[in-house]
Structure formats: structure tokens, C-alpha cells
Amino acid sequence: MSRTLNADEAAACDSIRRVCADVLAPAAAEVDETSSFPQAQLAALAELGVWGLNLPDAWGGPGLSAMALAAGVEAVAGSCASTASALTAHYLATDAILIGGDDDLRRRFLPEAATGRKLGAFALTEPRAGSNPADMRCRAVREGHSYHLSGTKHFISNGGIADFIVVFAVTDPTAAHKGISAFVVEKGMGFTASPPEKTMGLKGGHVFELNFDTQVPEANRIGAEGSGFRTAMKVLDNGRVEVSAMCLGIAQAALDAATHWAGERQVGGMPLAEYQGIQWMIADMATQLRAARLLTQDAAAKRASGVRFSLEAAMAKLFASETAGKVADLALQIHGGYGYTRGLPLERHARDLRIMRIYEGSSEIQRTIIARHLLQTH
Ligand SMILES: Cc1cc2nc3c(=O)[nH]c(=O)nc-3n(C[C@H](O)[C@H](O)[C@H](O)COP(=O)(O)OP(=O)(O)OC[C@H]3O[C@@H](n4cnc5c(N)ncnc54)[C@H](O)[C@@H]3O)c2cc1C
After folding, report:
1. Domains of the chain
2. Of the four, 111, 181, 246, 372, which is 20 to 30 A from 79 by CA?
3. pLDDT at 1 over 50
4. 312 is catalytic
5. pLDDT tens digits for 244-258?
6. What is the DSSP string of 8-38?
């Protein structure tokens, strides 16, 4: 992504890449094997200000562009995808407060979140409301100057660990998605978390079911009553660019491993790289990945320009997630049986990538968003 970065941004990304190489990459296999939350890795990134990479300097961030953010996320994901998933879930939470909240709420949460003192989570999905979050059943009923929040959120990254959780709930059941509001629920306000789900990949990026029967002060509401759904959709536009960047990082790591392996592995008296069948695989992988990177840069640039970029974000996420899955599969294929073992990272890359076609809107939902833009249907 360096083409699109100014000198300060390029320097910041170089620093992030160094920490990724020194701290994250060496521990990634163990994070996966032991399903451990990457606390030390996140702490190392906090020291560089990476927890606030999505925030302007007024709220504690470094004030870098959306292109630099994408490049940073790509570097983190290429070294440890679990760490990237926990980090980008934190970005969803702080984006919601930045986009939907007033200055008082921003002041209370964003500077501490930017420096790594407070971890966030973003709780939209419910057991019966995933692809269509407007089906949600969580309720928030006003009681004087607070709300009684009740219900269950499902698959919430960082949920049981976070210091604050952005929770979406229905405040007006007669108003469909316009009756949804967003709240910041703080640790200690009283909710329970399940043990982390056992997942196929991103094993260090813990996801939880959360049960709320919780009193939340009115001052913790994000924006006006009924504005929650709109805030969530804007946050997800941002999140989809970050998911695209994660896909690039993991797929690039797989491609780099495959080109190295093809040069080293001798079959029939010559390196695999000498076989045209392997060369064509690598050519296709690199070409597809470049196209995914250009779509991601395009979405990030539109985000940076301040206009709505739902279409570009959906296209980038759809293409990057599907492409990265194919690239990782071919990279594993080039490694033969060794690629299928846990001694090499190829099978981990393939498992980590599988969720990218599902979360923050599945590939089917991205196609629906793209088609609606083109056909102007609802
Ligand atoms: C590891 C992990 C981390 C997550 N982190 C978070 C988080 O931090 N916060 C959060 O709020 N959520 C999170 N999620 C939830 C995630 O966003 C949802 O799983 C996702 O949106 C899909 O919802 P669902 O699982 O309920 O599937 P469903 O909505 O039940 O969909 C099932 C299938 O039907 C397809 N489908 C649905 N609607 C249509 C349609 N209209 N047309 C065609 N096909 C359709 C879907 O594409 C999918 O293939 C996470 C999930 C996982 C597994």
C-alpha cells in the first residue's frame, strides 16, 4: 500500500511492520495452538499507538489516513491474524463512538481506547439476528435517566474481555430499524459472558455470547434514540475496509511462503518453480491479490475523502475475502503434504481466512449491497 502513503504514514507503517516481525509473527503459531488471547501482542501495538489508528488526533489517534490504517491492519494480519481480529473489533467500537457519539462520550472513551488502556467490543449480532441485524430482540427500556437493557448478543469479538462494549438494542419496537439505539456498556455495569466459542480459525481472537440484564445511564447512549442502526451501518463500511486489509495481509503471507517454497523444494531433479503449472498458479495468485489490493486502496481512498463509500467497501470486502481464500488454498497446494501439517502456517492461514467471507456481512450480503446500489432496489 506504500504508494498511497505520505512520508509520515510510510514511517509509521514501517514501525508497525518491525513490531509485527519481532513480536507478533514469532508467537502466531502458539496463539493458534493454545487459543490464547494475544495480550502481549496487543500491548506491543498499543505502545506504537496502533489501538488508535482509526482515530483523529483530536481524540488520541495519530491522525493518519484511511490508507495508512489499511496498511497497518494488513501488516498486523500478515503476522498474526488473531491479533488483527481483536484489534479491528476494538476499532468497530471506537468508530461507533466517534461516528455516532457527542463530544462528552468521545472524551470519556476515545483517548483511553487509543492508548490501549481500554479495550472495546462491538455487539450487533444476536442468536436470531446476524445477516439482518434489524431482526434484533435486545431491548432498552427507558427508566428515568437510565435504560434497562436486556437480551443476548452472540459471537462478540473481545466481548468477555473488553472494558466497554457498544451494544445495539431496540428502544422503539414500532419503528423497525429506526427504533434501534446504541449504548456504551461498561465493565462492571452487570452482564455475563460465556466462555469463548471454539472456532475453526482466529483462535486467539476470542468471541463470546453476552447476556444483558443491565442498567445503563442515559449519558452512555450513543447519539439520539433511533440513530443506532445508521451508526452501525457506517461503522460496518469502515470495518469492511479493515477486513479487506486483513485478507491482503494473510494472503500475502501465504503467497510469500509459496514462492519461497517453490524455489527451494526439489521435485524430479529441479525446483518446483521450474514447472510451468506452478508458475501459472503463482502468477494467478499475485494478479488476483493485486486486484484485491487496488479495490481495498480504492475503498480506503474514498473513505478518506469523507463521502459515503458503502459500495466500494462492499466490493473490496467481497473480492478480497474470496480472493484471499483462493490464494491461501493454492499456496497450501504448492506446499503439498507439508502445507497440510501444523508445522507450517499454511493451514492456519486457510482457517483464519475462512471467517472473512462471513463476518461483517457475508459474501452474499456484500453482493446484495452491491446489487442494490446498481439496481436502486431496497
Ligand atoms: C469469529 C467471529 C467473530 C465475530 N465477531 C462479531 C463481533 O465482534 N460483533 C458482532 O456483532 N458480530 C460478530 N460476529 C457475527 C457475524 O457478523 C455473523 O456471524 C454474520 O453476520 C452472519 O450472521 P449469522 O452467523 O447469524 O448467519 P445467518 O444470518 O444465519 O446467515 C446464514 C447464511 O445465509 C446467508 N444469507 C443470509 N441472508 C441472506 C440473503 N438475504 N440472501 C442470500 N443469503 C443470505 C448468509 O450469507 C450465510 O451464508 C462474529 C462471528 C464470528 C464467527
Report:
1. 2-119 (1.10.540.10), 121-229 (2.40.110.10), 233-375 (1.20.140.10)
2. 111
3. no
4. no
5. 999 999 999 999 999
6. HHHHHHHHHHHHIIIIIHHHHHHHHHHT---
